């Protein structure tokens, strides 16, 4: 019953070519940088996984984390709401060169589609995007005189998540606004692996304070001092580091 | 030799199929007993609809906290690793397919997997609770039940006559006389009480069972 | 900006005839007994409110709280999942006598309909109740080969909620499984009034520990030692107390 | 006399209409400035899409915590009464109609209330963020904008030519030259810069405005 994973490589070891992978975080906050980098390591060593469909709110920043994953050429398609950032050059160049697909989803719809995936709700109606280009091709229904767009659930093969504390049963807490999409993605993936700053014994987290109950988590790996994307980018970091 | 298994014994048998670390929801009443019989070395994590995962046993009489109850409104306890959450998150766990097993009672189970366990007909006050969600949520839905009604009528039937809880949802039945799987719209006998002949069991069952060459003996300790 | 209400009578003073009122709790845990009793007091004194539509998971127990509200004749219709209890005599008698309507809703669907009401989702699809009597008359749609029932949001004019701590901005915590439907109902009502064991100053509740953010709450009233339905029923209590 | 209001001044004007205790979402960039100009004695509670209610001002440089940011990815602070929550709960607040006001930027606003603020057309990388949710969620959706584009073309138009963010959602525009309401599918002039004639303003506006007998003066302090 202990969900502790020995290392990051093990955590991402089951991600295969073509899988849909949800990656938590909003910009840098809550982004599981170390899990992403472990996935890049595997690709550098083996050429796999590739052709991934990645779900994240953004499209990465600079040349680390999600941006590095995209830059490595591992991502076939990105599902996100806001592929802009302080330094979006990687995604922008690949998108304009036709090397990566984009499914643009309004942010609230993205969050709700992921929750729906986790909650067994195959479709729901939202006022968001009605009458806009992003509603094209989607069923519209009128309820109580107002028009709504039908949106479908979003599920993933894997979720890569960053949390703060995690116990060995997978119960999680988050740090402030680093919560964002992470708890939802835990729910929506067949397999959720989580990097936590500290793995603690069951009972160390107050039952009232658990944000993600362990049922939504398949593995936890300890990353004591996780990198923060903003700090890496201020230092002009790249991943993998370029030998020159 | 036992004429038939007691409810406690049926619960024991159902408990033997629950893996270590499994997330399990036990229906109100009789199914709740399953929790007592986890095999040594295995620890399931129990979910209750009203927002607790990983709760513990009943507290001693007099030390109940009535904010800490299960779906049957019985007092429970917390243990290391317990988590609280609201009802929408609770049923996200159910409906989203995160539970490994749900074990429910039954009025009738049909060979097509249909279950009737919430209404005995238009008389009285209907009450459904979380049963309709559980039957479409858990990865495995099992039923524990007497093999026949108090009047001796089969509870394992061709088609349910009572209002359905769910369509094609049950995959295994732990009865007072047998363990029966549902596969491809048919009852498949897996285990039967040793003293009982297949013909005797078939006579108590409302639809033809597929019977393997040698169904295993259903052996349960005295409890 | 201070959402503190002076007393229970004020808290329930805006509930008019015919309104839909969500009442939190699951059985006795999380049931706002004192708010319900204040509403009964108003009815005893004024004859109003009446013809209420009440949303609760259950139908009350004994002769206090929700059962007393029903017994007083204030409830036209009950929307619930499980109108049984240890002592359901009040609802049972009135229902069998045709004096109260019942809309029976599967528990998970009830929770999700309330959340949908709070989240601006007018309809969603669920596998729950497909093929059963409770799906009769509801649209069915097939997604990825499986059939789902369309369910509609549920909103209310008022929610009566019980929480543990509340700050003056309406941020709330709950006690253990007393959380249940309460946070959802806070979201789904035009006006949510909450009885809390203690009103605290903003900042007294850790921002990570807030379960219901204040945006979902319109008023808080302090009830320091709330009654527990189970204990009232063990003492064979009635509300109002019967003078004999 | 000011030729036109600066963005800061537009933000000031918009802030005057926010009630004490209002729940407010400010769009990324220019609208964020509105928070600085709450009138004395009033305290709005600011919501950010990424899961904070009631956050405070930016921290001093060097003391940022990058887990504590707003939707524009700028560092913020907590203050007494702050609450954290996940994205689905955050957009439940938005879509569920719990916000009192959302103040957004605009490329174009049409007299029917349509807003275009997310895409300047098929070139480049499209990005929508939370804008499409906000325009259908908040009780009141206001826009702050220059009255005309850099090329001098009207931003208040008959019909939007750019991809829409939302249909019929905007009810008030705070521009560099005027305050304009949208009512019954028409622009209604409420306030204009004192030095500006109605004819001059109309000439800068892409659709005919309804002009009351005496539109109020739009008077904003130097900031």
Walkthrough of the structure:
The complex is a heterotetramer, with 2 copies of chain A (244 residues) and 2 copies of chain B (223 residues). With 244 residues, chain A is of the alpha/beta class. Chain A has one domain (8-123, 154-227): Glutaconate Coenzyme A-transferase (3-Layer(aba) Sandwich). Helix content of chain A is 24%, strand content 25%. Chain A has 7 helices and 10 strands. Chain A has helices at 8-11, 33-46, 65-71, 89-96, 107-119, 182-188, 229-234, and strands at 20-23, 52-55, 75-80, 101-104, 123-126, 140-143, 146-152, 156-167, 189-200, 219-222. Chain A has a 7-stranded parallel β-sheet with strand order 4-3-2-1-8-9-10, sandwiched between helices. Chain A has a 3-stranded antiparallel β-sheet with strand order 5-7-6. In chain B, strands 1, 2, 3, 4, 5, 8, 10, 11, 12, 13 and 14 form an 11-stranded mixed β-sheet that branches. In chain B, strands 7-6-9 form a 3-stranded mixed β-sheet, with no helix packed on it. Chain B has 223 residues and is an alpha/beta fold. Chain B has one domain: Glutaconate Coenzyme A-transferase (3-Layer(aba) Sandwich), CATH 3.40.1080.10. The model of chain B has no long low-confidence stretch (mean pLDDT 96). Chains in contact: A-B, A-C, A-D, B-C, C-D. The C-D interface holds C 1, 115, 117-121, 167, 169, 171, 187, 201-203, 207-208, 210, 213-216 and D 20-21, 23, 43, 45, 47, 53-54, 78-85, 88-89, 91-99, 136-137.
